[in-house]
Structure formats: structure tokens, C-alpha cells
Design a protein that fits this description.
The complex is a heterooctamer, with two copies of chain A, two copies of chain B, two copies of chain C and two copies of chain D. Chain A is of the alpha/beta class. Chain A has helices at residues 15-28, 75-81, 115-121, 128-140, 145-156, 161-177, and strands at residues 2-10, 32-37, 47-55, 67-72, 85-94, 110-113. A six-stranded mixed sheet of chain A has the order 2-3-1-4-5-6, sandwiched between helices. Chain B is α/β, with parallel strands linked by helices. Chain B has helices at 8-18, 33-42, 57-69, 80-85, 87-96, 122-126, 144-161, 171-175, 214-234, 254-269, 288-294, 311-319, 338-352, and strands at 4-7, 21-26, 50-53, 73-78, 100-106, 137-139, 164-170, 177-180, 206-207, 238-241, 248-251, 275-280, 282-284, 300-305, 324-329. In chain B, strands 3-2-4-5-7-6-13 form a seven-stranded mixed sheet, sandwiched between helices. In chain B, strand 2, helix 2 (33-42) and strand 3 (50-53) form a beta-alpha-beta unit. In chain B, helix 10 crosses helix 13 and helix 11 crosses helix 12 (311-319). The termini of chain B are far apart. By secondary structure, chain C is of the alpha/beta class. In chain C, helix 1 packs across helix 7 and helix 3 crosses helix 4 (103-111). Chain C starts with a strand and ends with a helix. Chain D is α+β, with helices and mostly antiparallel strands. Chain D has two helices and four strands. Chain D is globular and about 35 Å long. The chains are: A alpha/beta, B alpha/beta, C alpha/beta, D alpha+beta. Chains in contact: A-B, A-F, A-G, B-C, B-E, B-F, C-D, C-E, C-F, C-H, D-H, E-F, E-H, F-G. Chains B and E meet through helix 4, helix 5, helix 9 and helix 12 of B and helix 4, helix 5, helix 9 and helix 12 of E.
């Protein structure tokens, strides 16, 4: 297995955390993995993004190319990155914010998850990204439900117990949102 | 041993502290900010640890000079434009033979340039961008594991040879994360006689680069030159990959070498060209003899750099006409994919015969 | 039985000064060496000579010394002091060194309240390099780079270092003095002592600005040079001091040292000293 | 108060500060060149010294030692 | 034409003013002080002339950047440590393609070093001591006449190629006097479109080195590289002396070349070794092809530098193993006499066969 | 028939600001462009953007512009202005740019009384590089390089640029203002106009220090950021001005221009402009 | 005095300064994301505008044009 | 002909001017010539010196080596430079100041000129150097009396007429002081 995934959205939608949590859990599942964030002036008041590569063998380049999965948390990111997806790749869209549609017929499978709304419903808009991760893990099955959640804890570390539950619930919400 | 997943910049910071670095001075610049920030967060918690955000790269340079003379293990870091400003200081550190570690997380140049990964500072790092006859040890790490290991070694070699050591990485190495482990650093083991801590009741000591007498200065210059030769004898590091049966050798370092490896893998998989990789790890001194030895059976070399061609000089000096040398460069922050590079290699190889 | 009441300071080496006749550097060196001796801190003092006529100061001071590149003394001293907070560290600088190329390092070391001392020799000219304009050169003063005299709109105004630094909260003590009479020389010595006292009490940055003759580049006789200091320089650079000691009681500031538990960090080294 | 001084003629650089400050003109200009190429000052034994050490205080080159009875 | 007898530093100053230089900013440093002082004396009398003793070498660098952008012919000068401080600015001038002339009157290094003549800054000057991929034109004058001529040409080439030009001399060239004449300088003749003088009613212009997009930046890098190739095609200068019948070629530049010439004369007089001299005048671009062409009939080359061996790299790169290359270096401010060097040459020659 | 009373300044390009919401740079840009238009000096104004969030200012100002390396704006502007004394030259700088790495260039340009204007955006933090400590950072303020808050003995004190520069005789006008209310915005615009007027009258160095919110790196909402400027920054950096205009009547200083008879030196160019 | 404003919704970055300074609450928060990803403010026609231009004066992104009758 | 001469003395004894005037007059007599002064910290409160090389062909190195003539205006310079003189060379000593004797038996001809005293007698201590030049030119005959004096004028330029005479008299004094 060797996959690449892009996570993209506004600064503050926690996209870097999404990528890092995936990379971290993949590491714990003994994969080779690289994580490469956007940085510097690029992010100034704009969109943030990161690329995660996961494979059984050493990874040459951590930058996005021939990406298999893309998570778009807002419209601009969708437009920016949709053309980096390989044919047959998967796009996960935050459908609560993105009304537009990708212009990639060849990316046949696409997943629209209204994670912002779902988060609002949970009464905590900040967990939209974790809900999305639930859906992402469910669909891609790169790592197991358990390993991902275990890896999440040290990352969100400092926060108190209750937070862990919230994240657990958020993740499950996303995980269950996707039938099959 | 348990694995870590940290950004290159943070790895350098943590490795330095574990290696006993207790004085860091630096000034913000993308893409090395996370290193300064890591030091800000952790240095003051380390016993005797000093972190200073200096007023400029120049001030940082001379702060570590003082701290090194006082006996601390010292480090400063910056990115290309900031490193240019440090040149007088580096020349002075070399002249005064003070152990020190300088990190350059290269970005696109020249001038203000941009903040993307690039390798345009190779000449500056290996030829002494500063004035006068001196060289420093220069490491070109290519993985997060190497960032951790070479950072620790840098402090050891800086002490061993009383010289500045530069870690030459780029924005990609500084920003990316990859699992790695921290090995146990060496304890400090070399003479502390040069350090200034007040003369006590003893003889007072002087550290200086000013030597007005031409003959003494000449001798000092040759001393530094001899030192560099000793380093070249003892400390050369490099990696070869798939060179045994190779018909073509790609020479690359750092990020470029990562990409090259990826490209070579592909070429083998689609069994196209049988190519191997020669990766210098010590960029200065350069593994001349080791590279030349390859030219015995292999006659085609392709140098790949994220620059218009700088290490190319060292490769040409090493091979001295014993083999054909091609070049592929991507300066200014452009990072090709392994696939792109693979095509370049194939084209180069086919054109040749 | 006669007893000696004035002699060469204990911690000056035997070398003959390379300074010109009547150069202020010579007297300043003597005074510093005297104070170091009187305070008994020779073994724990580290000096930082500049690029300038005093570049060879280490040939005279019998102290641990490390040369600073032009203008960087305060940064280098910062590195020394932060690593060895229980040592006395001074940076010795000329006006070009401190106020021109080195203004950033001087200003920020002072603003950080680095617990170091700067001995600032203001001779209104670049001595070492042969008499070019210094930031402290008087208006209309002729130098090799102001052959028609310093022009205020083209060359700018004399820089008043003590006035510039003393408002900074990091500065514990700033004093301007001169060397033109035995009385003044003794005042200057007191200032130097006060500087070191500030360091002892960890009060922060201290500086003594010493108006000092450079007869060679002023192209004056020693006597005229002293006269010029008294009659011309003093007008632009009034003598006097600024002290912030009271506002920052030692106790609060001494924490500076505790932050680096030196004795534990370099066990060998502090015993070596006393 | 009585005193006397010793002048190290190899150190003197002819600044004549000592002469200017000595209240008793105990020190006078010299005309012998020393190895540095200066004409070191000398003592005028005719005049006496009260050991104020004003000369030594002003001497840039520490050429004067002062003693008191 | 009437002869002048002036010090090298003053010659550069006068030649610059005659060539239309109207903006000089610099900072004192031995052994180039007389140049700054000459400008202080004469620049403000020239119409529109500006002299500024800047607060530092760095400030001087950026002052000339502004003045060059505003359309003045600009110059700054310093010596080794000060030139190290200018590296960020030089890199930026090259990136922004601003015409400018930078003078380095080299002294002994590294660090504070001393103020004697030396050639330890060759790498810095020719490899871009600054960050990123760029090169500047570098002249290595060896006589007072050349100081006058090359200074004038420097301004012309700076305009022609929109690039910084460095005059690389040493303390001896800067201090010595020799009779020479002033030739008539070229009038300014190249496009002024890049200059900023206020947009008037027209389109506003931008001068910048910041190019965030990697592909654009890459193109800019290649553009600068191509420019340098054009320069290498058109502007190479060098001198050969007694090479026709030579059995050994000494390669040296600047002061070292003067001494070498004296040594060769002696050897011919006492008809010892038949040796010739190859003297690069443009140190960057280096006269590669011209030197290599000599290796057709002559197989012995001896490089002589007042350094531990820097131009040596360019000679080795030029000859690419076609000939044997020996080296004699006198770094740190030591200046051998022609007689001493003559002995070295004889010894080297005899050892060889 | 409605008439437009507020619109995009004539000399701002159409590009959308890349600045964060509520970034002071945005308003400052607008005000400068307005004043340039009102004074009718667009054709003879040259701007110098810094390294900093405003590095791309030339994407917005429709003026001739040249980028300065980090901190060197005043030196570069000096080169421009001395060559083209009848042009208006301004250097636009952040606090790190002006008061940290560039303090020497700022101080000496001011001390020389260079006839230029500096627009100084004081946002108490390094914006561009992601929120590190600036010289103007408040004590105890948390930044990415002062995670425990700025410590006065370890990190030094906030640098007061106007207080530092205004005593210099070369400085004609120094004003500190802010952007937190319509009234303040208009005051700021007046200050900017005064700055350019000083240049016109060749009075010397002029600077407007604009206290400016950086909500992104302060991690505050726009509203809170403004509140923080008013309630916290203003205490350390009192608003107000220093003007030396009267002490140096234009006539005397206007000589500055005559020293470089520009029209004769660049015949082509001045007509091109008007 | 009567006036009206035009809001360029693509420029608005949701700082809400205009809302805070408008004496008549003529401007209200919006919930449509613009291409920049901000929810531009809108006009509440119910409230009137006196054309003081306070909103425009405070708007960092020059998203508001103000007209007067 | 190819000769080298060192002029040395205290700062302020006008030694650089001595060398420059010689070089200048040699140039006017169409020789190749180089002039190389001591500079920088060397001169700080110490001795100044300069080397003049004169020849019919191009001169390689302007620095002092195998020097034929040496002019010592004070004792330290004599000690510093006497060993640079070639066998058979000539040393000109300012005997008013220098009491010591050179330790160079092989430098058989030596000239002691009390130029300081002679200058005092002329009532102008500043012209000691020109007196010495008179003796130097007389002995070496490198350039003619006339050419030297002509070359002197532009050098001392700015000064007024009277000065020219003084120099003329000073030069003659030195010139005539040396019999043969
Ligand atoms: C980077 C650098 N620039 C310039 C110099 C040359 N330099 C040495 S000392 C000096 C200034 C001397 O004047 P000052 O600081 O006033 O000290 P003084 O000699 O008058 O005591 C200069 C410009 C140098 N050594 N290094
Ligand atoms: C020589 C050099 N050092 C460091 C940098 C990195 N850098 C760019 S902008 C900047 C400071 C930005 O802060 P500030 O000046 O306060 O402006 P702001 O972004 O806050 O408006 C720094 C450190 C650089 N570009 N060049
Ligand atoms: S030049 Fe001036 S400062 Fe230097 S030693 Fe002589 S008198 Fe002192
Ligand atoms: S003060 Fe000292 S140096 Fe000066 S004349 Fe007297 S003894 Fe000599
Ligand atoms: S980071 Fe701060 S200064 Fe930079 S654009 Fe954003 S708000 Fe403005
Ligand atoms: S002030 Fe401007 S940017 Fe802010 S909300 Fe109102 S219209 Fe939008």
C-alpha cells in the first residue's frame, strides 16, 4: 500500500491536526509515513493544507503529487487541489460549506459530509474536522478505529477528559455517517 | 526505542538540547521559525539553558561566539538571507577556532527570494561565504533520522576540531515530519582549556582572530588548512544506493537525494535504466575519493541539485575528467516529483548512447 | 622608609602601550586595571576588546579576554555573561564601534538590561582607521571623511550615547566623564567602580562614557587636545550621570543569576576561581 | 608632606601632562630621545616633591612611580 | 596624455567619478580608507554627487541599492570583513538586477585577520558569498593602469548587464602608487527603463527580489544564469606572458601575478626555467577555455595565490585533468619577493622531472 | 442624484488585500494612497516596502516601489532620496523591521535628518513570520518565542520608537497614532499628510508610528484586538506627537535640495513627471 | 442627512467593524460565504443610512462605498 | 638601472613626502617607478616608512627587498630596516637624532647628515626631510637637481611662494652639505 492524502481548508478549521492525527496513527500502525504542511506567507489569511503520505516502504517525496485522497473543508481548497487527485481518487467535501461541485468526472466516488452542520448539532463547531476524520477513516480504512482514537489522545493531550469523549463522539458520528 | 513524529525544525532543536546545547540565539525567518520557537519553549527549562531572540542574525552570531568561548555548547539557526548576514561571524568563529553549530534551512534565492525548499547556498556553505581562508564542516541531512543524528554529531565534531559546523537543510527538511528515534548523544569529551571563565589566580587567556604579523597569520592559515585535511581524512560520510550494477550514477544530496531515490526505485520497478545514487552526507569536506572510486567502472554521472549547479563543481573536481557528467537543476524553490525526475534520467540516459 | 603610593596596576602586563602620547585609552586602561584589582575580581573578570585602537587591549590587561568583531562587543559580552552569570564581563568600545556599526547591539543589550558593563571611549573620531568621522564627531569638525567639516544635513548630528541609552529601563547606570585633570581622572575611576558594582548587584546594564583625547587624529598637541575636550566636547556632551539603581532593588534583579544555576552546570569551574 | 618620584624614561611619551600639573615644577622637559623616539621628561632636583601623585595620575603611560617618606 | 602618480585607492575613486559615478556610500576599513576619503573629498564637488559615510557596511550596501534604482551610477567599497557583511545586499542587488560597483581591497583573514595584502576572498567573490544562485562580474586588476581602466569598465558592464560588478584587489594594490593615465570613459548608453523616478502619469514600476511562485522564481534563476553565460561569451579578459615557448605556465592574478612576472623575468635572465604566465583579469567569469587551450602543448601548470588555494579550483575545473597542476600559496598577508617565488618555481620544475 | 463620498483610493490597485481581517496594514495602505492622491504627488512618489506582512505592498500601491531587505528600508530610501531630492520617498516598516534588525538604519537615517518619511506599523509582534516577539511586544505578552510571556530581564523591554527618535535633531516630525475608531483613523491620516508635508518643506526625517492590530497572531477577534490596542498598547505607547518644524524653518533646510542640482543632472526626467 | 452604501461582498472579511460603528445598525452580519471564505455583512434595508461613512472609514478592506443624496 | 630605496622615521618627520617626491621626480624623468607606504595600525604612534622602486622596465613588486638605499630619520627605523640593505648599499642617517651605528660592515659607504640641526639652523625644523633629500639626490644622482625641485612644487602645491624658496634653500643645503 502507498497512498497520499491532502487535507485543506481555512486556517483554524484544524486541517493540520487532521493530517497529523492520520500520520500519527499510521505510524503507530507501523507504516512509513511523511507529513508536510503548508507554511509561511502562504497561510497568511488564506487556506492551510497538508499532505500525508503512507506506505510500506520508505517515502521519497512528502509533497503532494498523484494524490489518492483529498479532504476539502472549504470551497477554495476544492478548486486549488482537485486537479492533483489521481483518476479513481476520492474527494471528501465539507458539504455544509461547499456548495460547488468538483470538475472531475474521473474522480467517480465522491463523499459529501456536512461536518460543520453535524458539529453544530453536537453543539461544538470545533470538532467538524474530527467528524470528517471519522468519515475519512471509515472510507479509507487506512488505520483502525481504535488505533486512530488512541493516537488522537496524546495529540490533543493537555485538554481534559471530557474533551476526549467529545472527540470520541465526534469521530463516531463521522464514522457512522457514511453507510458502507 | 519509541518513535517520534516531529517536524525537522523541532527535531534539530530537541536533538541539540539532548546533545547538551545550552545556548541558543537566533532571529525569526521562514522556513526555520519552528526551530527558534522550539528553543524558546524548551531551552529555558533545561538546566543552565539560555534562549535569546537576538535583535538580528548578526547579533545572534556574536552571542554564540561569546557563549562558546565561555564553554557552552552553542547553536544558532536561520535561513538563506539571514545566513548571508552571519558570514563575518562565521569567518571569525573559524579564525578563533570556537566550537559552534549553525543551521541553515535554505529557501529560494537570491535576494529576498521565496520561502520554498532550495539548495542555492551550497557554495556559500562549502566555500566559506565569509572572507579569508577557512572551511567549516557542512552536513547535508536527507531524512528526519539524519537530522536527529547529525545534529548530535555536529556538536561532537565542533568540539573535537574546534570549528563551526553547519547543518545545511532546506525548507522541506525543516517542515516535514517522519518517524524517527533519538539515539544517545556522546558526552562532552574534549579539552576545555581554550574556554574563558576568568583567569582565577592563573595565567590569563586570549581568544582572537587578529594576528598582525604576516608570518604568524600565514602559519595560522595553514594550521586551519591542515585541520581541514584531518577532518577530510576522518569524518567523510556518504551513502551509495543501487550502485553495484548501475550504468548511471545520480549524485544528489538532501531533499534532492530523497527525490532521486524515489525516481531510481521507479526506474528499477519499470525496469528502465539501471541507475544508482551517490549521496554526500558531509558536503564539506566532500567525499572526493569515494566518488572518484566509482568512476572506475561507471562512466556516466548525472548531478541533480535544486540549484543552477553548485555541488556540480565538487563532482567535476572529484571526477577530474574520468567520466561524463550531466546536470539537472531546479533552482528557486521548484521541487520536482520522483516521476518527473525519473523521466529526466531516462531522457539523459537515452540521449547519451 | 619611603612607601610607594602610586605604581603600575597589578593586572596590567609589562608591555609598553602602543597608543599615541596622551591617548585616553592609556589612562582608561590603567583605571580599569586598578578597579579590578581593588575589587579583587581579576580572577572572575572577562574583557571584550573592540576593533579600534584598543584592539590590542589584551596585550595590556592581564585578564581573560576575547576580541569582538567591529561593533559586536555587547552581543558577545551577552553570550559570555548569560553563560557565566557570576563572572564580571565588560565590553570596551570606541565611538565608531559602539554608536555607528554597533548601535543595534549596544541599544538592544542595554534594552535587555544585560548585566554587563560597557566602557565607551568617546574621542569624536575613528582613531584606528586614521581619523574618519565618528557618530560623535562635532558639527563643523574636520575629519578625513568630512574635509569641509561635519555638515548637519549631509552627515548628521553628534550622537549622544548616554542620553540615548539612559532612558531605557534595562540601564542601571550611565555616566559621562573625562580625563583632563587629576580630579576628573579620579571621578572617572569612581564611575568605573560603580559600573562593576552594578554588575555585582545584578542591576543590569551599566556604561561609562569617557570623553577622551585623540591628539593624533585631531592634529593637536596633547595640551590642546585636553583643552578641546574641556571647551568643545563638554558643550555637546555634558558630563554627568544617570542612575536607576534605586528603582530596581538588587533583590528583585538578582534573580537573573538564579535563572542559570551555574555552579551546578560547570562544577569544575567556580571553585577554580576563588 | 615630602615625597619623591621615579620616572621610567623608556615609557615616557613626552605628553608633558606631568609638567603641567606639578605644583612645584619638580618635573621638566628633557632632550634625550628614548628608544621610542620621545624626549622623556626629567626631574629637577632643585625643586621638591610633596608626593601628591598628580603627575602619576595624569601620566597616560604610567611612567611615574610616586613614593612618600 | 599626462601621467599621474596616485595610490590605487585614490585611482579607483577618481576613475569612478570620471566614469560618472555620482553616489558613493562606504564605511572606513583599512586598507581601503583612502578610497572613502577620496570620495569624501571630491564627490560632493561633482555635479549631483553624493557621498555618505554610512553607519555600517550593510547600510552602505542598501544605500547604493536605492541610488542605483533611482538611476545613479553607484559604488561602495570595503575590505574583507566588511565585504562579508555586504553579502546579503550583493545577493539582493543581483536578484533585482541593479547595476552597481563593489570594491574589495582584500586583507589577511579569516576573522579580524590583519591589514596586509591577501587574496583569501576569491571564493567569496567568484562563488557568490551571498545566498542563492547568482554570480557577479569580478575583475582582478594587477597594475595602477588597470585599476583606472577596469574601474571605468566596471560601470559600463554593470549597466550593460544590469549586474553588480566587483573589483577584487588587495592592500598592496590599494596602497601602492605607479604612473598611469586616465583614458576617456564611455558615456552611459544602456536602457534606463528599469529606473524608478516616480511613475508620473504612467504605469508604476516595481523592483523586487521576492518571487513567491516557485516556477517564476526558477525562471528568474535561469535568466540570471543565462545572463552570466552571455557575459562569459563576451567579456572574458586575461593576459599571457612568455607563454609561446614556455615549458611551465604559472597561473596567478592581481598582486600575485605582478610578483610572478618578476620571478619569470629573473628565471629568463639567469636562463633557468622557460616559464610563462597566465593571468586571468576577469576572475568571474573565469577564462576557462583560454586557459585550457594552453594545455594543448604545455603540461605543467603552477598556481600561485596569496591564499591556501582558491583560484586553484577554477584552474582544475578548466584543465579537467589535461595537465599537471601544482600549487604555491602564501596566505594571511605574506607577500613573497620575486626572488623567493623564482626559487619556488625552479624547485617545483626540477622536482617534476 | 446621489454623489459618491467614499470610495477606493485612486492609487490603490484592484487587487484584494492578502492581509488578515482587521489587519492595520489594510487601513494604513488606504490612508497613504488617499494622501498621495490628495497631495497630487503620485507621479513623484517612490515607496519602499519591507520584509514583513507588507512585503507585497507593491501589489496594492499604484506607485513606483522597490523592496528593501529586512530592516534596511531607511538606508535604501536614503539612497533614493539623495539621488532624487525632489521626489517623495517613504519607507514602510513593521516593528521587527524598524526597531530590531533595522534599528541602526532607522536611528542613523533619523539622526542624519534624511528628508524621508517612515510609516511604522507597530503591532507588537512579528506578523509575517508567525507571531514571534517583536521589540515592541508588551511585558508578559505571550508570543511564539515568549511562550511564558515576555520576561523583562531575559527578553528586555518594549522599545518606544517615537520616544527614541524624536529627541534627535534630524527628526522633524514624529507622531504616534492608532486605527481603532473613525476619529483615530482620521487623525492618523492627518499625521500621514503632515509627514509628506515635512518632506515637501525639506524639514528632515518624519515618522508616523501606527499602533495596529494583528488579530491573527494575537489570537483575538478583530473587536478584541482593537480593545487590546486601546487598553493595553496605549498605556505603553501613549499617543501623541513630537514636532520640530518650528525650530528649523524650511528656508534654512531647503538647501538640502539645492545641494544636488537634480534637473541638470537628469534632464530627461523631471519633465517626464509633471 | 440621507445616504446609502454599497457593499462589495467579495472583499468583505467579516471583521464586523462596520456593524460596530454604524449608529443606525444599517449593516448586519451575513451568513453566505464569499469566495475568500468569509461571510460578508449585508444591508438591513429596514434601517436607514445617514451617509456618515463611519463604516467605510473603519473598513480595512475597502468593501464599502458611501453615497449621499 | 633598477634601484630601491626605503625612507623611514617618525610619523610627522615627513618621510612619506620624501619618498613621494623622489618617485614623482623619477616619473618625470621617464623612469618606471613604484611607491609603497606603510599604512594602518603599523603607523599608530610608531614609525612611518615607504619604499620607492625606480627602474627602466616594469617593476614587479613595490615592497622593500634587496634595497639599495635607506634613509633613516630616527634610531628605531635604522634598527628595523638596516638588514634589508644589499651589500654595497648606502644608508643615510639623520645624525642629529641617531647616535647609534649601523651593524652592517658590508654597507661600507655610509652618510651621516645632521639634517635636524641643519634645519634648526635654517630656523625651520620642518624642512629636515628636504635637506636630507638634497644629500640623497646629490649622492645617488637618480634625478637631476632641477627635475627634483620642479617635481617638488606641485606636491607642496597649496603652500605660498615663500615656502618654495625655503624648500629650495633647504634642498641646496643638503645638496651642498655632501662634498663629492
Ligand atoms: C566589519 C568591520 N568594519 C570596519 C572595520 C575597520 N575598523 C576597525 S576599528 C574601526 C573604528 C575605530 O574607531 P572607534 O570605534 O571610534 O575606536 P578608536 O579607534 O577611535 O578608539 C573601524 C572602522 C573592521 N575592523 N571591521
Ligand atoms: C535578513 C532577514 N531576516 C529575517 C527575515 C524574515 N522576516 C521577514 S519579515 C520579518 C519580521 C516581520 O515582522 P514585522 O517587521 O513586525 O512586520 P509585520 O509582519 O509584523 O508587519 C522577518 C523576521 C528576512 N526576510 N530577512
Ligand atoms: S589614534 Fe587616537 S585613539 Fe588611537 S591611539 Fe592614537 S590617540 Fe589614541
Ligand atoms: S605624563 Fe607621563 S608620558 Fe607624559 S610627559 Fe609626563 S611622564 Fe612622560
Ligand atoms: S499576520 Fe497580523 S500583520 Fe500580518 S496580515 Fe495578518 S493581521 Fe496583518
Ligand atoms: S468593515 Fe469591511 S471587512 Fe469588516 S465586516 Fe464591514 S464590510 Fe466587511
Amino acid at each position: 500500500m502507498a497512498i497520499k492524502a491532502i487535507f485543506s481548508g481555512f486556517d483554524g478549521q484544524g486541517v493540520l491536526m487532521m493530517g497529523y492525527s492520520l500520520a500519527h496513527s499510521a505510524m503507530n500502525q507501523d507504516y512509513h509515513v511523511t507529513f508536510f504542511p503548508s507554511y509561511g506567507a502562504e497561510v497568511r489569511g488564506g487556506t492551510a493544507n497538508c499532505t500525508v503520505a503512507i506506505a510500506e516502504e520508505k517515502i521519497a517525496s512528502p509533497v503532494a503529487s498523484e494524490t489518492d485522497y483529498m479532504v476539502a473543508m472549504n470551497a477554495p481548497s476544492l478548486f486549488t487541489f482537485q486537479n492533483k487527485i489521481t483518476a479513481g481518487g476520492v474527494i471528501f467535501m465539507n458539504s455544509s460549506i461547499i456548495k460547488a461541485h468538483p470538475n472531475r468526472p474521473d474522480v467517480d466516488i465522491r463523499r459529501a459530509i456536512p461536518c460543520s452542520e453535524l458539529a453544530e448539532e453536537m453543539g461544538n463547531s470545533r470538532v467538524a474536522n474530527i467528524i470528517m476524520m471519522g468519515a475519512f477513516i471509515k472510507k479509507t480504512g487506512i488505520v483502525t478505529f481504535e488505533i486512530y482514537l488512541k493516537s488522537l489522545e496524546p495529540i490533543l493531550g493537555s485538554r481534559k477528559k471530557s474533551a476526549a469523549e467529545i472527540n470520541h463522539r465526534a469521530f463516531s458520528t463521522g464514522f457512522d455517517y457514511l453507510k458502507n | 526505542m519509541n518513535k517520534f513524529l516531529m517536524s525537522g525544525n523541532n527535531i534539530i532543536g530537541e536533538a541539540a538540547i539532548r546533545a547538551g546545547c545550552r545556548f541558543y540565539a537566533g532571529y525569526p525567518i521562514t522556513p526555520q521559525n519552528e526551530l527558534a520557537e522550539y528553543m524558546a519553549e524548551h531551552m529555558r527549562n533545561a538546566e543552565g539553558g539560555v534562549f535569546i531572540q537576538s535583535e538580528s542574525e548578526i547579533a545572534a552570531m556574536h552571542m554564540i561566539t561569546g557563549a562558546s568561548a565561555a564553554g557552552a555548547r552553542v547553536m544558532t539557526s536561520s535561513s538563506s538571507p539571514g545566513i548571508s548576514l552571519k558570514q563575518e561571524g562565521i569567518s571569525s568563529l573559524a579564525a578563533c577556532e570556537l566550537p559552534s553549530v549553525i543551521v541553515n534551512i535554505m529557501r529560494g534565492g537570491p535576494g529576498m527570494g521565496n520561502i520554498r525548499p532550495a539548495q542555492g547556498d551550497y557554495f556559500q556553505a562549502t566555500r566559506g561565504g565569509g572572507h579569508g581562508d577557512y572551511r567549516t564542516i557542512v552536513f547535508g541531512p536527507a531524512t528526519c533520522q539524519e537530522l536527529a543524528d547529525l545534529t548530535m554529531d555536529a556538536f561532537d565534531l565542533a568540539d573535537k576540531y574546534r570549528t563551526p559546523v553547519m547543518i545545511l537543510a532546506d525548507g522541506m527538511m525543516g517542515q516535514m515530519m517522519e518517524p524517527f528515534i533519538f539515539t544517545k548523544p556522546q558526552p562532552r569529551q574534549y579539552s576545555e582549556n581554550f574556554m574563558l571563565r576568568g583567569a582565577g589566580d592563573g595565567k590569563s587567556k586570549i581568544i582572537r582572530g587578529l594576528i598582525l604579523d604576516a608570518i604568524d597569520m600565514e602559519e595560522h592559515n595553514w594550521k586551519l588548512a591542515r585541520k581541514h585535511e584531518v577532518i577530510a581524512k576522518n569524518e567523510i560520510r556518504y551513502e551509495t544506493y543501487q550502485t553495484e550494477d548501475a550504468e548511471l550514477i545520480v549524485v544528489a544530496y538532501g531533499t534532492a537525494a530523497r527525490i532521486a531515490k524515489g525516481a531510481l526505485k521507479r526506474l528499477r520497478e519499470h525496469n528502465k535504466v539501471k541507475a544508482g545514487l551517490f549521496r554526500p552526507i558531509t558536503l564539506c569536506p566532500f567525499p572526493e575519493a569515494q566518488l572518484r572510486s566509482l568512476s572506475g567502472k561507471i562512466k556516466d554521472f548525472l548531478v541533480f541539485e535544486m540549484s543552477t549547479g553548485q555541488m556540480l563543481d565538487d563532482v567535476r573536481l572529484s571526477l577530474q575528467g574520468y567520466a561524463d557528467i550531466g546536470f539537472h537543476g531546479r533552482p528557486g524553490g521548484a521541487v520536482p516529483t520522483p516521476a518527473e525526475l525519473a523521466n529526466v534520467i531516462v531522457r539523459y540516459y537515452e540521449k547519451k548512447d | 622608609m619611603a612607601k610607594i603610593i602610586f605604581q603600575r596596576p597589578k593586572y596590567l602586563k609589562e608591555n609598553v602601550f602602543h597608543y599615541c602620547p596622551d591617548c585616553g585609552h592609556s589612562i582608561a586602561h590603567r583605571l580599569i586595571a586598578d578597579v579590578v584589582d581593588e575589587m579583587g575580581i581579576r580572577g572572575i573578570t572577562i574583557g571584550v576588546p573592540p576593533a579600534g585602537c584598543a584592539v590590542l587591549a589584551y596585550n595590556y590587561f592581564d585578564l581573560d579576554m576575547i576580541e569582538a568583531q567591529h561593533g559586536r562587543g555587547p552581543a558577545l559580552a551577552t553570550g559570555l555573561k548569560r553563560t557565566l552569570p557570576d563572572r564580571f564581563v565588560f565590553s570596551y568600545q570606541g565611538d565608531g564601534d559602539l554608536a555607528s556599526i554597533g548601535i543595534a547591539e549596544s541599544f538592544h543589550a542595554a534594552n535587555r538590561g544585560e548585566n554587563i558593563t560597557v566602557f565607551f571611549i568617546n574621542n569624536a573620531v575613528y582613531g584606528m582607521t586614521g581619523g574618519q568621522m565618528a557618530p560623535t564627531t562635532m558639527l563643523e569638525q574636520r575629519t578625513t571623511t568630512t574635509p569641509a567639516g561635519r555638515h548637519k544635513t549631509l552627515d548628521g548630528y553628534p550622537v549622544k550615547v548616554c542620553e540615548l541609552l539612559s532612558p531605557l529601563q534595562g540601564v542601571a547606570y550611565a555616566q559621562r566623564c573625562t580625563l583632563t585633570s587629576p580630579a576628573q581622572v579620579n571621578k572617572t575611576k569612581k564611575a568605573i567602580r560603580k559600573d562593576f558594582q552594578c554588575q555585582k548587584d545584578a542591576l543590569g546594564f551599566s556604561i561609562a562614557e569617557i570623553l577622551s583625547p585623540c591628539p593624533t587624529n585631531w592634529k593637536m598637541s596633547p595640551a590642546d587636545a585636553c583643552k578641546w575636550v574641556d571647551e568643545v566636547m563638554n558643550k555637546e556632551f555634558p558630563l554627568g550621570g544617570y542612575s536607576r539603581t534605586l528603582r530596581q532593588p538588587p533583590k528583585k534583579r538578582r534573580r537573573l543569576c538564579e535563572l542559570w544555576p551555574l555552579k551546578r552546570y560547570f562544577p569544575v569551574l567556580t571553585d577554580k576561581v576563588f | 608632606m615630602k615625597g619623591f618620584i621615579k620616572i621610567n624614561k623608556t615609557l615616557c611619551k613626552e605628553s608633558h601632562f606631568c609638567i603641567n600639573v606639578c605644583p612645584n615644577s619638580h618635573i621638566v622637559a628633557g632632550n634625550e630621545y628614548n628608544t621610542q623616539g620621545y624626549r622623556s621628561v626629567c626631574i629637577d632636583e632643585a625643586k621638591e616633591c610633596n608626593g601628591y601623585a598628580l603627575c602619576a595620575t595624569m601620566c597616560p603611560d604610567i611612567a611615574i612611580e610616586v613614593y612618600r617618606e
